[in-house]
Amino acid sequence: MDERKDLFIGGEWTAPSTARQIEVISPHTERPLARVAAAGVADVDRAVAAARSAFDEGPWPRTEPAERIETVRRLAGLYGERRDELAELITAQLGAPISFAKRAQVALPWSMMTAFAGIAEKHPWQENRPGMYGQDVVLRREPVGVVAAVVPWNMPQFLTVAKIIPALLAGCTAVLKPAPESPLDALLLAGLLDQAGLPPGVVSVLPADRDASAYLVGHPGVDKVSFTGSTAAGRQVAAACAANLTRVGLELGGKSAAIALEDADPAAVATAVRFSGMGMAGQICNALTRVLVPADRAGEHADALAATLSAIRIGDPADPRTQMGPLVSERQRRRVRHYIDTGVREGARLVTGGTGPPEGAERGWYVRPTVFGGVDPSMTIAREEIFGPVIAVLPYRDEDEAVRIANDSAYGLAGSVFTADTGRGLDVAARVRAGTFGVNQGYTMDPAAPFGGVKASGYGRELGREGLDGYLDVKSISIASA
Fold first, then answer.
1. What distance in Å separates the CA atoms of residue 75 and residue 196, rounded to the nearest whole number?
2. What is the crossing angle of helices 184-195 and 156-170, to 10°?
3. Does the keyword Magnesium apply (predicted)?
């Protein structure tokens, strides 16, 4: 078993303040993979103090953007050399199929580093604006300060890069807190950050439990919190930040709807639903989990979904042929099974799947892809985020009702519409209240496009120019004639 005894604090590998450890369990074998040091509150204090000193007194915030861009490009080069190792770590920790881990969990973050560097090269770091009263105004975009980046386990490198890289390009310093389920890839990244030549204190990496995480987001030395996680946890983070007037960005849960119009191909819709989340066994915040279909074609769509999802190859995530692995933990499997039982109890029609394990999966936290038909919008499986491979098919009478059902949700992260008429699809997209949307596809995580939600899915944006702006303050300087 691998054992990591040190934490990366202030640019150095150092012993933790406590003897607590995090045990990383394989969701495929149910056996321990590694033990890593768990940060305590004293370690959080050290990391924030190092970041505070590096921001207030160190060189990083005062370097030219071009120098920070060059450092990020150097990091991308180092990252590319270790991408296979990163993918293998993510597969072992989370049960993500190795093909999905290489493509989405590692290659996409790698490309995002270069994309962010390109965005930063074109960013208006300073601009002049004529004032209303005859005086000149200079606008400077400056780093917001010390950033606490709190990342969940489901897409750890993607979400880490989406926070840390724009923060670094902006000139911020940061404390990264990975989830207890996925500390190994975060610690590997810490080594790469060190090799990239960042000044001391610019980034610290603290695997930790919930108590240390709560202490970090409420720390008075932090200027911005960037949090991705559940809506319930997001509310607690927002409250902690409010006490210190700390800026916060929240990317939270989702219950995204795929609206199939009457001219949509059921097979194409089913394929898009599969690729929106089944690579991580439905454990994706913007997965299309509500499929809204014309009532007179409901059976056709349910059957197409059942055929597509039941054909997914489930098994050992390290096998390149595997298309879906296990859920991340026994607790997560119990949660998903509970929702499946609830759907049956409330009267939804189980089309395929169920609570039993897939064939050949005697060990591991596996759940079969599950499709429910005849789902009413009031049912629990249509309203709550399940975070598993469970799809609800909801019939509607006309387009207006489809839009009403899509909007009848506490969440507003993503959604999609499927139709042969692209113009009509864009009209539907304009009517659905969501931060991101796809036409004839699940939402594409394009590094150039901002990503985030509305309502209980949070606020703030990551990726794109907007993702960089989230780590910058705008200073206005008025200049009177001498």
1. 5
2. 30
3. no
SS3 state at 352? strand
C-alpha separations of 430 from 33, 423, 427, 439 in Å: 47, 11, 5, 11
Distance, in Å, from the CA atom of 274 to the CA atom of 58, rounded to the nearest integer, reads 47
Q: Which long-range contacts (CB under 8 A, 24 or more apart) does 125-132 make?
A: 125/65, 131/478
pLDDT of residue 133: 75
Closest CA to 54 of 10, 7, 8, 9: 10
Reply yes or no on whether 251 is catalytic.
Answer: yes
Per-domain boundaries in the chain: 2-252+458-478, 256-446
Low-confidence ranges of the chain (pLDDT < 50): none
Structure tokens, 35: 């033990």
Beta bridge partners of 130: 136
Inter-residue contact 386 to 332 (CB < 8 Å): no
Catalytic option among 81, 142, 181, 251: 251
- Do the beta carbons of residue 260 and residue 403 sit within 8 Å? no
DSSP 85-137: HHHHHHHHHH---HHHIIIIIIIHHHHHHHHHHHHHHTS-SEEEEE-TTS-EE
User: What is the structure's pLDDT at 360?
Assistant: 82
